[in-house]
Amino acid sequence: MGEPTGRRTAGKNAEKALILLGRNSKVVLKSAFRTKILEEIIMSDITITERQAGDVTILDLDGKVTIGEGSVALRTAIRRVLGEGKNRILLNLGGVGYIDSSGIGELVSSFTAVNKEGGTLKLLNLTQKIQDLLAITKLLTVFDVYEDEAAALASYN
Amino acid sequence: MNTHELKLPSRIESVDLAAEAADEFAKRCGCGEECVYALDLAIRESVANAVKHGNKFDETKDVEISFAESGDVIEIRVRDFGTGFSVEDVPDPTDPANLLKSNGRGILFMNSFMDEVKWENPPGGGLQVKMRKKL
């Protein structure tokens, strides 16, 4: 009997992500059977963990979203999720201790990329620093922002 | 007067190196957390600009950085050796027409977090930004 289909698919996704991210990164396959496929993109600056809540994909970001690795990791994660046909995305930024203009730009690019696919990208758990930067850039008027995950998930319905 | 100078190659990795140097310098000068954050963000944005838009990733061109503390002020200078550009020509990223652009916010952050930001065209070419922050 062969491997479960989910596991094979996740393995292929992991291989693809490794190719995209380069050899200094790794994708950890967390679970691929019975529950939804969960993956982590781990780079030196940031870890992105994917969870599924109904038809909403939650990406938990932990680390820095700055020029270079952090921004590339976010872009890669969004492309991968969109490539899997998931276009309802919630970015949990609670673990992001630092973001620069490149990271803010990547949030905007993610927002427009998801919109182009007919989906919705929302933000969860902004730190004070991120909130300040989004206020300075007037992007709080663009993003739908939540402090509570349950309320954020309910807003997709 | 407390000073520190460094030259870094025109690569993205130099942004982190410059930020580490700024953090160390700021802490040595007794900067508080808010001041350290402001200097860190300003140096990241200015060095990223110098690498990308100034030197255009040409590794034969350095990015020159200096930190100086005098009295209750820290001054950071970042210079590239590119062809220069007019800061006035950079579109306002907070204009509704530009809100969804993926770049162009670095100078806004520098202006927001530093007390003074001055752009100069130094002899020998390139662009130099001098930023001051009160301790």
CATH H level of chain A: which superfamily? Answer: STAS domain
Overall structural class of chain B, as computed from helix and strand content, comes to alpha+beta
Which value, in Å, is the CA radius of gyration of chain A? Answer: 15 Å
Based on CA inertia axes, which overall geometry of chain B fits? globular
CATH architecture of chain A: 2-Layer Sandwich
Number of domains of chain A: 1
The residue-averaged pLDDT of chain B reads 94
Strands of chain B, total number: 5
Percent of sequence in beta strands of chain B: 25-35%
- Please, how many helices of chain B? 3
Order of helices and strands of chain A: HEEEEHEHEHEH
**Sheet having the most strands of chain B:** 5 strands, antiparallel
Oligomer: heterodimer
* CATH topology call of chain A: Transcription Regulator spoIIAA
Spell the H/E element sequence of chain B. Answer: EHHEEHEE
Per the principal axes of the C-alpha atoms, what is the gross shape of chain A? globular
Helical residue percent band of chain A: 40-55%
Fold and architecture overview:
The complex is a heterodimer of chains A (157) and B (135). By secondary structure, chain A is α/β, with parallel strands linked by helices. Helices cover 40% and strands 31% of the residues of chain A. Chain A has a single domain (38-154), classed as STAS domain (Transcription Regulator spoIIAA). Chain A has helices at 5-21, 69-83, 101-116, 128-136, 149-154, and strands at 26-31, 38-42, 46-53, 56-65, 88-99, 120-124, 145-146. Chain A has a 7-stranded mixed sheet. Chain A is globular. The model of chain A is unreliable at 1-37 (pLDDT under 50). Chain B is 34% helix and 27% strand. Chain B contains 3 helices and 5 strands, in the order βααββαββ. The radius of gyration of chain B is 14 Å and the shape is globular. Chain B is an alpha+beta fold and 135 residues long. The mean pLDDT of chain B is 94. The interface between A and B is medium-sized, with 21 and 21 residues.
